[in-house]
Amino acid sequence: MKILVTGGTGYIGSHTVVELIEAGHEPVIVDNLSNSKESVLDGIYGITGRKVPFYNVDCTDLEAFGSVFEAEPGIKAIIHFAASKAVGESVKEPLKYYRNNLTGIINVLECMKRYGASSLVFSSSCTVYGQPEELPVTEEAPIQPALSPYGNTKQICEEIIRDTVSSCNTLHAVMLRYFNPIGAHESALIGELPLGVPQNLIPYVTQTAAGIRECLTVFGNDYDTPDGSCIRDYINVTDLAKAHIKAVERMESGKQKQNVEVFNIGTGVGTSVFEIIKTFEDVTGVKLNYKVGPRREGDIEKVWADASYANNELGWKAEKDMRETLASAWKWQTTL
Ligand code: UFG
């Protein structure tokens, strides 16, 4: 199946392109390279032996984005990753986030209608749950007021998708609420390429271990958790990528129960920051220089997924464990 992947040279996008090819699909990439490099295509080629059609196009530009559909007739599905994703930056530059993320999804839906693509997979986030009252968190948990413009764009995009799909009976969507994606492809030919100082834990850990950063700061050790540090559900990026293939195939084979479905994509296991540090040191044999600092504003104390709906309905399950995933993140770092 011909599938358009927006943000296909990005972190999750590139891993998904690899999995699409390995599942026999024909991905086409659209990316404006605002947070990735064209050389990612070489990594994809190195893993799959396939040269994927690539369009350096910003999907907020409706005319340019539409021209990709003209050049690539027969696109059936879109996996939409292209979006701005830094929580802190979104607080400083909210208009950038509302413009990029909302215009992006509007143009994707507009082009789906215009060019007859029927299935959409949307990258949502567990951020929509805020601090859930009950853990593990299910898809039925209430959506909480967003803590950042970034989080708000995910909630608004979900609403835009629901309204558009219910107004048009040819459209279908699956919204995947990701927990924390980490790690890299086992080949270490693709992985995460954070620009500047990493904001996320794992790239900060690997850069500190590599000597690029002097010291990792653990943001708070006084949370109401067993060791005092925050807990997240860290999901291997290749496992996460595979959920997108399941989602597209579910829509195209008519197995959806509703025209819009939501799935949590996580492991179901919560891991603290201190546990990450300890496991990383253990797996790599590298001692990590770290200190405890104050809490980071806006951090959720603890969240992990109830992924049973994805396990049972989507036929998807996280397979890789934390040790293997941290080893892959380290292997990738050492190639940079
Ligand atoms: N952390 C540190 N030190 C660091 C970086 C992070 O202690 O240098 C801690 C954070 O406090 C948090 C955990 O590591 O407890 C994970 O932090 P990340 O920044 O890696 O991830 P977040 O859970 O904060 O954010 C992620 C995504 C967001 C998304 C959010 C909620 O990056 O896009 O999950 O879904 F919005």
Structure summarized in a few sentences:
The protein has 336 residues and is of the alpha/beta class. Helix content is 40%, strand content 16%. Strand 2 (26-30), helix 2 and strand 3 form a beta-alpha-beta unit.
Q: Give the distance, in angstroms, between the N- and C-terminal Cα atoms.
A: 33 Å
> Outline, from the CA principal axes?
globular
Which parts are unreliable, with pLDDT below 50 for 5 consecutive residues or more? none
Structural class, by secondary structure, is: alpha/beta
Biggest sheet record: 7 strands, parallel
Q: Please trace the helix and strand order, writing H or E for each element.
A: EHEHEHEHHEHEEHEEEHEEHEHH
Strand order of the largest sheet: 3-2-1-4-5-6-11
User: How many distinct beta strands?
Assistant: 13
Radius of gyration from CA coordinates: 19 Å
Hetero groups bound?
A: uridine-5'-diphosphate-4-deoxy-4-fluoro-alpha-D-galactose
| Overall residue-averaged pLDDT value | 97
Which characteristics define this entry?
336 residues, binds uridine-5'-diphosphate-4-deoxy-4-fluoro-alpha-D-galactose, two-stranded parallel sheet, 13 strands, seven-stranded parallel β-sheet, 11 helices, alpha/beta
Secondary structure layout:
Blueprint: E1 2-6, H1 11-22, E2 26-30, H2 40-48, E3 54-55, H3 62-71, E4 77-80, H4 87-92, H5 94-115, E5 119-125, H6 149-166, E6 172-178, E7 180-182, H7 201-209, E8 216-219, E9 231-232, E10 234-236, H8 237-252, E11 260-265, E12 271-272, H9 273-284, E13 290-293, H10 308-314, H11 322-335
Parallel strand pairs: 1-2, 1-4, 2-3, 4-5, 5-6, 6-11, 7-10, 8-13
Antiparallel strand pairs: 9-12
Helix pairs in contact: 1-2, 1-8, 3-5, 5-6, 7-11, 9-11
The structure holds uridine-5'-diphosphate-4-deoxy-4-fluoro-alpha-D-galactose.
